[in-house]
Design goal:
Elements: H1 2-32, E1 49-52, E2 58-62, E3 66-67, H2 77-87, H3 99-112, H4 122-131, H5 138-154, H6 157-167, E4 174-175, H7 177-185, H8 194-202, H9 216-232, H10 238-245, H11 261-282, E5 286-288, H12 293-314, H13 322-327, H14 330-338
Parallel strand pairs: 1-5, 3-4
Antiparallel strand pairs: 1-2
């Protein structure tokens, strides 16, 4: 009996050793394929190239990713707290992986029989964003964890958080918190109210789903979840929480309006020829031009006035855009031309 137990113990131990050996070999192989986290020191995310008039007003922008880099000192503490509360409340305590959250997520997903809860820390999210692909696979999760551990060994917490806040996508074509704050609230990241910060942080998980432009009700519901987490984590008081719940949001999406399109296009061609496409669309150039906005508006106003007068004298069609002409009743256009009139309606 004892010999059977001894044999059973031996083969069990041998089986466990083989499994552990295979696992270690698998991890070692993955580890050797990881990129060096040293490149983060030279890593510069794509930024907006901005074109300014002679008096410093922005007249156009060019970018592949709408991003404005800021240091962590230029980000409101409300926003820092909101992001930590909803994404990684233990950020300053762990070494890249927060194991209690990993175990909790594992059992939750096992219970539901599908992937319903993630456990990625901010460092893991950063590693995924810079080095990895988005697909949810076991090998990617392992790489993500190993990279996060390496990043934590070589960089300070605030360096990691600053890069993360400048890197993440927050919807509406905005990358990083500064561009997103400007897009949604027409503010700088340092000027956000508690509720605005919570709404922005809440969009990290699913920027399209929680977009205040597309789904304002879902966005504000998510905002309330973040505010509750901020209260529970001690980032805000009960009074601040109650006040933030009553905050009235105002969203106004505005497209880029180019005042002098021909002038701007000339500048774009010049910059692309001088710095290349990558330099134009990624390097965050700030270009100051000779354009006088006041004189430009006067010139455009009187040019249009002169063209309308000429159209009236010659009996040409009214000055409408192609889209407006397509939608405008043809009978009215014909009547206007016949009677030498200018159509004043606009759509």
């Amino acid at each position: 009996m004892k010999s059977k137990l001894a044999y059973l113990g031996f083969f069990s131990l041998l089986g466990i050793s083989i499994i552990l050996g295979i696992l270690c070999g698998f991890l070692y192989q993955i580890y050797n394929t990881l990129p060096s986290v040293e490149i983060i020191k030279e890593y510069t995310p794509a930024q907006i190239t901005r074109i300014f008039s002679a008096d410093g007003e922005q007249i156009a922008r060019f970018c592949l990713e709408r991003r404005i880099l800021v240091s962590i000192s230029e980000i409101n503490q409300n926003l820092l707290n909101a992001v930590l509360a909803i994404e990684d409340a233990n950020f300053y305590e762990h070494k890249g992986i927060y194991w209690p959250r990993v175990i909790q997520a594992f059992w939750k997903n096992l219970e539901k029989g599908s992937y319903v809860q993630g456990a990625s820390t901010i460092t893991q999210q950063l590693a995924r964003s810079i080095f990895l692909y988005p697909q949810k696979t076991i090998s990617r999760k392992i790489k993500e964890a190993l990279l996060a551990h390496e990043i934590e060994k070589k960089y300070k917490k605030n360096e990691i958080l600053e890069l993360y806040l400048n890197q993440i996508y927050l919807g509406d074509g905005s990358y990083g918190v500064e561009a997103a704050a400007n897009s949604y609230f027409k503010k700088k990241a340092k000027d956000l109210e508690v509720a605005e910060a919570a709404l922005l942080a809440g969009s990290i998980r699913a920027p399209s789903k929680y977009s205040p432009f597309r789904h304002p009700e879902l966005a504000q519901k998510r905002c309330r979840v973040v505010l509750r987490r901020m209260k529970d984590e001690g980032f805000i008081t009960v009074n601040q929480y109650q006040k933030a719940l009553k905050f009235v949001f105002s969203f106004e999406k505005k497209g880029q309006k180019i005042l002098a399109p021909y002038f701007v296009e000339y500048i774009r061609q010049y910059l692309q020829k001088k710095y290349g496409r990558s330099g134009l669309y990624k390097s965050g150039l700030q270009v100051y031009t000779t354009l006088d906005i006041h004189l430009q508006k006067i010139a455009q106003k009187y040019l249009r006035w002169g063209l309308e007068k000429l159209d009236k004298r010659q009996g040409y069609r009214p000055l409408l855009s192609d889209a407006e002409i397509t939608d405008y009743p043809i009978e009215k256009i014909q009547e206007a031309i016949k009677n030498h009139q200018i159509i004043e309606e606009r759509f």
